[in-house]
Amino acid sequence: MTYCVGMLIDAGLIMMADTRTNAGIDNVSTFKKMHIFEGKDRFISVATAGNLSVTQATLSKLEEGIKNPETEEIETLETVPTMFRAAELVGKVLRSTQLQIKAGYEAEGVSFGATMLLGGRIGDEPLKLFLIYDVGNSISCGRETPYLQIGELKYGKPILDRALTSETPFNEAVKLGLISFDSTMRSNLAVGLPIDIVMLRNIPNSKPAFYRVERTDPYFQTLSREWGIKLREAQASIPRPPFVSPLE
Amino acid sequence: MTYCVGMLIDAGLIMMADTRTNAGIDNVSTFKKMHIFEGKDRFISVATAGNLSVTQATLSKLEEGIKNPETEEIETLETVPTMFRAAELVGKVLRSTQLQIKAGYEAEGVSFGATMLLGGRIGDEPLKLFLIYDVGNSISCGRETPYLQIGELKYGKPILDRALTSETPFNEAVKLGLISFDSTMRSNLAVGLPIDIVMLRNIPNSKPAFYRVERTDPYFQTLSREWGIKLREAQASIPRPPFVSPLE
């Protein structure tokens, strides 16, 4: 299982992915579910969920490049001119990878679904964040709901729905993301530490920052413990329902 | 969509169901997704989720009764000797209902899944709570995880995982259930008020109590508002991550 969340707020782009499923060898980046493509005018981060052979094959094909039938040129994430075209390229490759293995997997009754988050910036474009479905289509993150999730998303969604807005400060948003992961990891043991974080401020020419929350991370341990204590306090402070008679 | 939760704690049995899907006509009880079977030595409550034609047909067949091939007698929830046998009977009827319509639904690509919670007491038995899967099998609620859920269950699971234990007082458990519903309704609009609640204390010969949380219920409005405020306070009280540098 996997949980990944991307947040696109006024202050910048934050992407987080757990690492519990071992993604095996990966020749694209140093992250297990977070894959980085960097060039002189671009920074692109791809987080993956779902069937590992599908996501790995997709990433390998993206690295090798896809021939554009109109221009005869080889397209990669290093050559696409915009983030939207990057999302289209990833979607196209994801779809073709799935179609290749569809017949075999369906016969076996095995799930071969896969979804991806694609975030980053090309040239002077604003920061962008997309969720790419396995049919190849994608949705773009907007200001109204400034986050997108893939994988085991429901346990960690309520805190984001309640607290995250486009105006949330950058480090507050990172904190909310970690609370979202904490809730997810408590309810689904298949999502676990370490958590990989990619952070890109919404400032021209800003450099990405990377952080890995390890199992022993003192900040995350504090956050997890404090959040549990505060939730219990919040729960205790709410009066009990008056309609429950003492004994019936 | 539906969300139902059953809690079996030392203090008693609590079952809650939302009502947003209109269950249409229902000749078993006055509740939409909560169906009550009462007899002189028993109280049985069934909460349903999934394909409405399947759950309705199952309940109608349960009311009419099923002939036991061994004894030739007609079995209903009014005649079964134990809660376990009640769970078996419901599972058998649910399974046979599904098999009847399976071919047609599969051809149409429509979901015909259905699950049920069955709780209550027969005679001097302890209170019991079962989750019945559509294959006809069931699991029984135990002390370690004293609740079972069906339908849209993930949004409301973290609060139960954190706070509910077998020792939780009865009215505190009702409160936790309502917080669980509040989180679910915020993240999935297809789950909504009113919420039907069935409460049965773990006291010999205790009578069941019923409550419907209407849209205008002042207690639930307070709970929902206070919980949101307390969550924001809890979130604000946790320090921000030290690894996010002010600007990078």
Note down, in words, how this protein is organized.
The structure is a homodimer of 248-residue chains. Mean pLDDT of chain A is 89; it is low at 22-30. In chain A, a hairpin with a 5-residue loop joins strand 8 and strand 9 (138-140). The first copy, chain A, has a five-stranded antiparallel beta sheet with strand order 10-1-2-11-12, covered by helices on one side. Chain A has one domain (3-215): Aminohydrolase, N-terminal nucleophile (Ntn) domain (Glutamine Phosphoribosylpyrophosphate, subunit 1, domain 1). The first copy, chain A, is of the alpha+beta class and 248 residues long. Chain A has five helices and twelve strands. Chains A and B meet through helix 3, helix 4 and helix 5 of A and helix 3, helix 4 and helix 5 of B.
Features:
Glutamine Phosphoribosylpyrophosphate, subunit 1, domain 1; 248 residues; globular; 5-stranded antiparallel beta sheet; homodimer; 34% helix; alpha+beta
Brief overview:
2 copies of one chain form a homodimer. In chain A, 34% of the residues lie in helices and 27% in strands.
Please give the domain count of chain A.
Answer: 1
Give the C-alpha Rg of chain A. Answer: 20 Å
Beta percentage of chain A is 25-35%
Helix content of chain A: 25-40%
Mean pLDDT of chain A: 89
Largest sheet of chain A: 5 strands, antiparallel
Largest interface, per-chain counts?
A-B, 50 and 50 residues
From N to C, what is the helix and strand string of chain A? Answer: EEEEHEEHEEEEHHEEH
CATH topology annotation of chain A: Glutamine Phosphoribosylpyrophosphate, subunit 1, domain 1
CATH architecture assignment of chain A: 4-Layer Sandwich
The CATH superfamily of chain A appears as Aminohydrolase, N-terminal nucleophile (Ntn) domain
The 3D shape of chain A can be described as globular
